[in-house]
Specification:
By secondary structure, the protein is an alpha/beta fold. The protein folds into two domains: 62 residues, 2,3-Dihydroxybiphenyl 1,2-Dioxygenase, domain 1 (Roll), CATH 3.10.180.10; 53 residues, 2,3-Dihydroxybiphenyl 1,2-Dioxygenase, domain 1 (Roll), CATH 3.10.180. Helices cover 16% and strands 35% of the residues. Strands 1-4-3-2 form a four-stranded mixed beta sheet, covered by helices on one side. It has a four-stranded mixed beta sheet with strand order 5-8-7-6, covered by helices on one side. This is PhnB protein. InterPro entries: Glyas_Bleomycin-R_OHBP_Dase, PhnB-like. Pfam families: 3-dmu-9_3-mt.
């Protein structure tokens, strides 16, 4: 098996909703495992039982996203210092991802042709995750 780089996103109670949303965007297989499924992971707070200890979206075309909830008993720093980037040449596919991710998002830069010839856009989705989409194009003459 080849090495795979997966974003692993930490949430505070929104992992299930976020992964279900990303599943609607990218398709594929979604595996959600709550804390209650694992004896070693149970906390003293019953409200944490339904939260996601480990979630994995195996999207189409090799796209993978992993995520979990941080229990109330643990420190959660929130926010993000990275952006998840989708890049490629299939404009219809990437435009479709952009359109779906845009639902409820704050658009930083609309997806449009950039000076370097590619189509590029940035947004922060409704779960606070930053995304960039870059569709390979050809430079203007």
């Amino acid at each position: 098996m080849a090495t795979i780089l997966n974003p692993y996103i930490s949430f505070r109670g929104e992992a299930r909703a976020a992964l279900e949303f990303y599943h609607s965007v990218f398709g594929g297989e979604l595996d959600l495992r709550p804390f209650a499924d694992f004896d070693f992971a149970k906390t003293d707070n019953p409200a944490d039982d339904a939260k996601i200890m480990h979630g994995h979206l195996r999207g189409l075309n090799g796209l993978n996203i992993m995520a979990s909830d941080t229990p109330e008993s643990m420190e959660w720093k929130g926010g993000s210092a990275i952006s998840i980037t989708l890049s490629g040449e299939d404009k219809d596919e990437l435009q479709g991802y952009w359109d779906k991710l845009s639902e409820g998002a704050a658009i930083g830069e609309q997806l449009a042709q950039a000076p370097w010839g590619d189509w590029f856009g940035m947004l922060r989705d409704k779960f606070g995750i930053d995304w960039m989409v870059n569709i390979a194009g050809s430079p203007s003459a």
